[in-house]
Amino acid sequence: MSRRQFGFLVVVTLIGSTIGGALSGWWLTPSSVKAQKINGVNAEEFLLLDANGKARAGLGLDKNGEVGLVLTSRDGKRKLALSPDEQFVVKLSDQSEGVLWSAPRGPAGLNRMVRNLAFGVSC
Questions:
Q1: Phi and psi dihedrals of 69, rounded to 5?
Q2: Quick check: 47 and 57 in contact, CB under 8 A?
Q3: C-alpha distances in angstroms, 62 versus 38, 56, 58, 108?
Q4: Pairing state between β 45-49 and 88-94
Q5: Is the dihedral of CA 16, 20, 23, 25 positive or negative?
Q6: What is the pLDDT of residue 117?
Q7: What is d(CA 45, CA 68) in angstroms, rounded to the nearest whole number?
Q8: Is 91 exposed, middle or buried (0-12, 13-18, 19+ CB in 10 A)?
Q9: Is the pTM higher than 0.85?
Q10: 73 vs 58: CA distance, rounded Å
Q11: Which of these, 88, 93, 86, 90, lies nearest to 72 by C-alpha position?
């Protein structure tokens, strides 16, 4: 192989590898998922786990499609639940599901809750 042929081979290899790299980068680039918005996340349930993997908070839909937010105490003995679809919009319960405190749905329940909190009365 002559020097001229070797130089031509090097130039063709350089050009071919550059074009091949550009095309493979364009062809193999992953596309964004079309089911989700670019600035959003879609899910039916979100769980917040502690260091031990225990769910401490959850936001999701139940089997009837009702939304709710549940927060659990560190020791797991108390649970605060918020749901606009339940009889009680806000409910604090103990481990045996006994209601410690609740706020009923509707303006009357909200007014009673605000009045009781203002006067330091337990609901």
A1: -125, 130
A2: yes
A3: 26, 17, 11, 26
A4: unpaired
A5: negative
A6: 62
A7: 10
A8: buried
A9: no
A10: 12
A11: 93
What are 46-78's pLDDT values in tens digits?
Answer: 999 999 989 999 999 888 888 899 999 998 899
Running DSSP on this structure, what letter comes out for residue 84? Answer: T
Strands 67-72 and 78-82, by their bridges, are antiparallel
How does pLDDT run across 1-22, given as a tens digit for each residue?
788 888 888 898 999 898 888 8
- φ, ψ dihedrals at 19, nearest 5°: -65, -40
Q: Hey, what are 43's tokens? A: 């899910």
Residue 42 in tokens: 């879609």
